[in-house]
Amino acid sequence: MMNLKSAGGIVYAGAYNSLVLHGPHRLESHVSFGKLSTDSLLRTKDCHGEVLACSSGRVICTGNLHVRHLSGYGSIMVHGDIECESLDFTGDIAVKGNIRTHSLKVSGMVSKPRCIDATSIDITGHIVACSVHTEQLTLSTLQSTLLHRHGMPHYAKRSVIDTVVAAQVNVHQLRCRSMDADSITLADECLIEYVRYRDRLTSDISSAVIMRNHGTSPPHQGR
What we know:
Layout lengths: L1 E5 L2 E3 L2 E8 L3 E3 L3 E8 L2 E4 L2 E15 L3 E14 L3 E2 L2 E10 L2 E14 L3 E19 L2 E5 L4 H5 L9 E7 L2 E5 L1 E14 L3 E13 L4 E7 L9
Parallel strand pairs: 1-3, 2-4, 3-5, 4-6, 5-7, 6-7, 7-8, 8-9, 8-10, 9-11, 10-11, 11-12, 12-13, 12-14, 13-15, 14-16, 15-16, 16-17, 17-18
């Protein structure tokens, strides 16, 4: 397989061991890679490889993004699905399709995937999603005066997830229509319309549950 370092332009079809891309690039169809590193704008129809690492990069994928590991910081926009084993990212992730991964850890914002299907989800910041299926969901707020100073107040907004199905849930500042889990902890102005739990439901004074059901059905068995 080939190695390529480039300061800008087109990456032509082929199998690459290493792609180090400085400056704006476009990937042709049928590009695969062992590791791709980018620090600028990267446009692609579909993205297939082992490791995608961003350093202040901006990735725009009009199809599906399928890698083993996705990491770094910057922004990612995917019109299709994201599929990976691990996703560890700081910045903005916008997805029109689904996110399927084993481990998802984001500091920043995840916007509008149809479904996130993961074993563990740990988000510090803001998320808007239709549904989440996971064993472990942890959602905490990202608070800093720098967010407003740099015009990024949306990072501190209340998160919105329509449906959550999980085993363990620990969330802050979340609005949710339906939540089904074994153990649930709510804090910092959560508003949940319907909760079904099997083991424990803990809520601080600022949070509210409109309807609750202490169910006895078997625990969440996976995704």
